[in-house]
Amino acid sequence: MTPLTPERIEERLRERFRGVEFRRQSGEAVRDHTLHLPAGNLVEACTFLRDDPELDFAMLSWISGVDWLPREPRFEVVYGLLSLSRAVRLTLKVPVGEENPRVPTVTGVWPTADWLERETWDFYGIEFTGHPNLVRILLPEGWVGWPLRKDSPLGYEEVAFTHNTPDREKPSPGLRKLGPKKVRYRAQ
Amino acid sequence: MTERREPGVTDPLRILGAPPPPAGEEGALREELERALFFTKADSLIGWAVNQSRANSIWPLGFGLACCAIEMMSTLGPGFDLSRMGAEVMRPSPRQADLMIVAGRVSLKMAPVLRQLYDQMPDPKWVLSMGACASCGGIFNNYAILQGVDKIVPVDVYVPGCPPRPESLIYGIIKLQEKILASGVELGPLWRRSPKKKGAA
Amino acid sequence: MTLNMGPQHPATHGVLRVAVELDGETIVKAQPIVGYLHTGMEKQAEYKTYTQSIPQTDRMDYLAPMSNNLAFCLAVEKLLGIGPPPRALHARVLLTELTRLASHLVWIGTHAMDIGAMSMFFYTFREREQILGMYDQVCGARMTATYFRVGGLAMDLPADFLERVSRFLDTMPAHFAEYEKLLTGNPIWLARTRGVALLSKRDAIALGVTGPVLRAAGVKWDLRKSMPYAGYDQYDFEVPVGEHGDSFDRYLVRLEEMRQAVRICRQAIVKLREIGPGDYRLRDYKYVLPPKEEVKTSMEALIHHFKIVAHGFFPPVGEAYQAIEAPKGELGFYFVSDGTPKPWRMKVRSPSFTNLQALDTLVRGGLVADVITAIGTLDIVLGEVDR
């Protein structure tokens, strides 16, 4: 089979979805073939990409969220698709706004998206409408906040030294000076 | 660092990590009961015998969490045999174990589970914190990892390393054995004071 | 009845919790609950430079540490548009295949131990100690190696390393024969693994399963052959594919992969001997540390060293995803760079996380003991599942 080029993929998508804007991401170091598309067309486009015999993107490899905090729209959901028969990868990106972060789920297209979307929900708070079980997966249930957002802190614990612990003038009383120690081993 | 032991305390129960008794009448009653327990010092014959048996047959609880667990498995494996030290069997159930080797990073989701397992272990019990992550959070100082397992359980021996070599873990177990051999022994109540004596029901 | 196989259980795969719904002894649903080892590696990577995040990757799939290092370094190198020199390239292949061997050895040992054959654990850990000794010789640490860097290796291979690996590889065929003798014809092993935890081809692809689990289901997909990386196209090896998609096939596939790993290692040793001593890191000082001799004599090299160590290197603005065929499956790293030395986003495509979703499909309709077999054959590592 002739290798599947990025141009051919875009050609097929554009001829199938006329009027939908598929913008290819360009940049100095954008190393993978990346297409932006609006959230409304996501499920249809994914179904087409999976079922079309020439493209045959049968496997969804990964889903990631990206938080571009000062930029609008704030979030992006990135889907990494893999075509086993053609040995080709494709990256799809869906922009998501900050006020109402919602994207339709692709669990109907690829069942593997179940946990992948849960993970993105867990980290970013992006809701996947239609997901069968959208609950936290990696963080404890009842955790408040979306840790991977850029405005969430790292949660770093300050290491306690004498200079940054206010009521600690000298070392703690339990700390003894290390002198020569008379060691008696069990074998003796 | 967090102060886990009050200085100047010699009471073995306190040193072994038991929480201080509640104040008030119930506390006074409990203190009475505890003083009725038969304590021996480590160098008396019974104490020595009990300590020897406790130290030479430590049964660890298989609590491997992350990478340190693999080094713990290597320590139990043929290269560095931990059963030479008496840790022949690694008990899966906390009810039958007396040493909890916390091997690996403790996430905040796992911390209540760890505390529950510690509570389920019968006395006497010890905790060995293996590796940097269990001792102080290790290389992960962030929202997800408990910065040191001594925030939730009292630790007897810390074994640093990332992961500690099996020889380090064996040295840690030897140090724990020395600690056990040096500790006071509590054998259980020989009689119970009648509660009516203090006027409490 | 709902049975909780709690986060602490003796099947030493880590802290996995499975909520199993039973109807008598038959499983109706098995839902894995993960997150008990969540470490926040992806968040932490945004606060560290690229090189500072390499130690974190060791702790993800801690049974195959150099594999993770390789995936990380390849993804960053893809972003930067650079590659390692030939000596480093083949040394990486050699060490990654030794890692694959180590990972599968632990897998066979613990899987057999879970099913009940305790002696396999001791046999395979004996071999694994040899490999860990080699890791120790090459980088100083038994397990968490952090040996690969962007652009090559952290330090050069020791002088007698190839000899040591060669001697080790000569002993391996006898050990494989030992494992086969213990397990393959064993009626108990066959009864516990044949026909247990079936996964069909269609389900495997739909669930995104990769690695030996996918190959045992009948799909001939191995990234080393289909989308080669890191010089694997210069090597001659075969990819074993199973037929039925049950646990026994996965065992056979992984055993054969171990043999092929030994084959690749032998070829790598030959290539390294041909290339002889040379550069172990790329001489592109914009991104890679210069060698110490030059740092002490040349001013430019000193300044580059200072910049890279103090700030980190400045990659171009862009993104890249690179996946490798790790022992567990497709391990990929996705980097988004904003031009600063710290990545804007690091996403880890972890094979065990995706493979674990298939647990429900594997054990439905089976018996409770099959859950242990299924968890074992999926070969999951919780460090990688939870990151």
Describe this entry's structure for a reader:
- The complex is a heterotrimer of chains A (about 190), B (about 200) and C (about 375).
- Chain A contains 3 helices and 8 strands; from the N terminus they run αβββαββββαβ.
- Chain A is of the alpha/beta class and about 190 residues long.
- A 5-stranded mixed β-sheet of chain A has the order 1-3-6-5-4, with helices on one face. In chain A, strands 7-8 form a two-stranded parallel ribbon.
- The termini of chain A are far apart.
- The mean pLDDT of chain A is about 85.
- With about 200 residues, chain B is of the alpha/beta class.
- In chain B, about 35% of the residues lie in helices and about 10% in strands.
- Helices cover about 50% and strands about 10% of the residues of chain C.
- In chain C, the strands form 3 sheets. A 3-stranded antiparallel β-sheet of chain C has the order 1-2-3.
- In chain C, helix 3 runs antiparallel to helix 4 and helix 5 (about 120-140) runs antiparallel to helix 6.
- Chain C is globular and about 75 Å long.
Briefly characterize the structure.
The complex is a heterotrimer of chains A (188), B (201) and C (387). By secondary structure, chain B is of the alpha/beta class.
CA(first)-CA(last) distance of chain C: 31 Å
Task: List the strand order in the largest sheet of chain C.
Answer: 1-2-3
Strand content of chain C: 5-15%
- What's the shape of chain C? globular
Helix content of chain C: 40-55%
Distance between the termini of chain A: 77 Å
| Biggest sheet strand line-up of chain A | 1-3-6-5-4
| Major interchain interface with per-chain residue totals | A-C, 39 and 45 residues
Low-confidence stretches of chain A: none
Helix content of chain A: 10-25%
Strand content of chain A: 15-25%
Round the Cα radius of gyration of chain C to an integer and report it.
21 Å
- State Rg of chain A: 25 Å
Protein structure class of chain C: mainly alpha
- Quaternary structure state of the chains depicted: heterotrimer
Q: Give the H and E element order of chain A.
A: HEEEHEEEEHE
Nearest-integer average pLDDT of chain C: 90
Number of strands of chain A: 8
Main structural class of chain A? alpha/beta
Mean pLDDT score of chain A: 84
Coarse shape of chain A: elongated
